[in-house]
Design a protein that fits this description.
Strand order of the largest sheet: 1-2
Helix content: over 70%
Mean pLDDT: 83
Radius of gyration: 21 Å
Structural class: mainly alpha
Shape: globular
Low-confidence stretches: none
Distance between the termini: 50 Å
Largest sheet: 2 strands, antiparallel
């Protein structure tokens, strides 16, 4: 089974899968807690700017690479630049996808553990110390590893079924439910006491709290949140019909991601301030703040269970894209059986290598690398080092290596107006994207600033 034999059945299926890849831990879990520790509104404003000026052009660049070749991550670069070293962009993307999957599955596992406890009615209750409960959960090796294993298992089962029957089917029907429940949660969150303090923190920029590290995080988050820099969208767009508009698809995916990021902030920060919690709570922000909100809602346990189920799905759709990017890059000459075999092998390896990350808040919390525990080190390396490097190389490749006629043709296909964006798009890829990445890197490592 090669890349040409896999296809999305519709544009909606592609948009839902691509948006599902973007909408997950990046938008719902990671952005709120990173924003909370980096100035709130200032970070969010910077994140929006980076997403539109850097993330969006890069997303469109990956779409062009994948759709024009109808090949997945590694093969696409080989087709466009044969007998050159550019194929290493795809290989770097596959490696980074694997590293992310290793620690991403840990957070996905926490979500499944919380979902199970909520289903058992063990979660929401007056007087519960949710911060202590979260610390106990992530420090518990049994709960962490069982949750991580279940998360990886679901990911394997879906990806093994293929693009249409697996990834597209679940993405197209369940993702809209997440938006509906977000609306319910926000309405309740905004009616809590002192909720407006949270809204002000999230939407009013305070640049005095923004550090060079925060700027790097905002840049990294703009890649992580829409899955660019690791060629996932090269793989996903290789399954897209040649008649679809790439520019419209890119704007839709980015728009949905920014909307969910906004909704996540409006749901979580008012609840944090209402509950008297600190917005700098870190990775546990979602797992601590959300139960506090649902505790005050009639049938809160039911709402929490439903939200956790849909949040688990949102994290899984991102996980599908990570595993798919790796599996699709491997030989598929003997068809579906090979896809199944690779899915199990790569999924199993990601679980095994993710175990230290899962245990880094408990039995392995004494082990640090460059001052970070194992989980945080993997997260920082993948999202703040490897993804920006991949994004920089992709921008150079598309802006300087590919033929202008190919780029214009891809932008015009499916939408004659798409070509109107060409000049601005190429300008951003040539100058803004590389310069932004390099300056932020130099600033973060203390060379400039």
């Amino acid at each position: 089974m090669n890349s040409q034999s896999e296809k999305w059945t519709s544009k909606v299926g592609f948009i839902m899968a691509a948006a599902g890849s973007a909408i997950g831990i990046g938008a719902i879990w990671k952005l709120p807690y990173i924003a909370g520790t980096n100035g709130g509104g200032a970070f969010f404003l910077l994140f929006i700017m980076f997403t539109l000026l850097i993330g969006l052009p890069l997303l469109l660049a990956e779409f062009v690479i994948g759709r024009s070749t109808q090949k997945t991550a590694v093969e696409a670069y080989e087709v466009l630049a044969p007998k050159s070293g550019w194929k290493w962009i795809g290989r770097l993307g596959v490696f980074t996808s694997f590293m992310i999957l290793c620690f991403y599955s840990v957070v996905g596992g926490w979500t499944l553990v919380y979902l199970f406890r909520s289903l058992m009615g063990q979660f929401v209750g007056a007087g519960t110390d949710y911060s202590k409960l979260f610390d106990q959960t992530i420090a518990d090796p049994t709960a962490s590893l069982i949750g991580q294993f279940a998360f990886i298992l679901i990911t394997i089962l879906v990806v093994a079924k293929g693009v249409q029957k697996g990834i597209e089917t679940v993405s197209k029907f369940l993702l809209p439910g997440l938006f509906l429940l977000f609306v319910v949660l926000i309405i309740r969150s905004l009616t809590l006491q002192d909720a407006m303090k949270g809204v002000e923190f999230f939407l009013r920029p305070d640049f005095s709290k923004l550090t060079s590290e925060g700027i790097l995080f905002a840049l990294g988050q703009s890649f992580f949140a829409i899955s660019v820099g690791i060629s996932i969208m090269v793989t996903y767009s290789s399954y897209l019909d040649r008649k679809e508009s790439l520019s419209r698809s890119a704007f839709t995916v980015v728009g949905l991601n920014l909307l969910v990021s906004l909704l996540a902030g409006l749901a979580i920060f008012p609840a944090i301030f209402s509950a008297g919690l600190e917005p700098t709570a870190g990775p546990g922000l979602l797992f601590i703040a959300l139960p506090s909100v649902f505790e005050h809602i009639p049938f809160g346990g039911l709402f929490l269970t439903a939200f956790l189920a849909l949040f688990a799905f949102a994290t899984l759709t991102s996980s599908f894209s990570l595993l798919e990017n790796i599996v699709a890059s491997l030989p598929m000459r003997d068809g579906h059986a090979k896809r199944k075999r690779w899915s199990w092998m790569i999924g199993g390896a990601s679980f095994a290598l993710g175990v230290p990350a899962a245990l880094s808040f408990g039995v392995l919390d004494h082990i640090t690398i460059a001052g970070k525990n194992i989980f945080d080190f993997m997260d920082f390396t993948a999202c703040n080092v490897l993804m920006p490097i991949g994004a920089l190389l992709i921008s150079i490749f598309v802006a300087h290596r590919l033929e202008r006629s190919l780029l214009i043709d891809q932008l015009n296909t499916g939408s004659p107006a798409g070509g109107k964006w060409f000049t601005l798009w190429i300008f951003l890829l040539k100058y803004v994207v590389p310069v932004a990445i390099i300056i932020v890197f130099l600033n973060a490592f203390g060379i400039v600033g």
